[in-house]
Fold this sequence. Notes:
- The protein has 202 residues and is mainly alpha-helical.
- It contains nine helices and no strands.
- The protein is globular.
- It folds into two domains: 1-47, Orthogonal Bundle (Arc Repressor Mutant, subunit A); 53-183, Tetracycline Repressor, domain 2, CATH 1.10.357.
- The chain starts with a helix and ends in a 16-residue tail after the last helix.
Amino acid sequence: MSEQDFEAALIDAAFALGAQAGWRHVSPAAAARHAGLDLVRARALFPCTGTILKKFGRLADAAALSHALQEGSVRDRLFDSLLRRFDFLQARRPGVLALMKALPSCPPLAVALAEMNIASMGWLLEGAGVDATGLTGAVKKRGLLAVWLYGLRAWAADESLDLTATMAAVDSALARAERFATRFSTEPAPKAAPEPELPAPL
Length: 202
């Protein structure tokens, strides 16, 4: 089994185990045992549970960026990438929902996931042709993260096969973000205060 296949198998096992027993019982060793994978190799590739989530996020990003739209508006390209990411989550839906349920009781994990998601949003922005560097890029990443989280809440409650409610939520959130970005970029800069007049020389 290649390293890539081994990692994918362990990640899938972790999410299956999380769905069955809850994420407090998930670890690289437990996932490896669940899937009948070699523990020594699992130890080398997955030092901790956080590594499972980090590599899961990278796989989700790869699914979102693979065959991403190269034409159309930025909003269309982001919509396509976000929906591809949700399709990736949908294939592991029970485990992802179990993870979301576990996050409130594990703040460090929630913080780590938030940081990973911000990095992921940067990749999705770049994939859509949007510069995500610098201070402006940081604002854009957090804006897209808000869109993602809004869609994620809809996805968690969306039991339709075609994710109709999820698509509607993402489209609505992107529309709001687009209006905000347009208003922000076209808002005139505040006028500088007039310089005080100097007294005429005597």
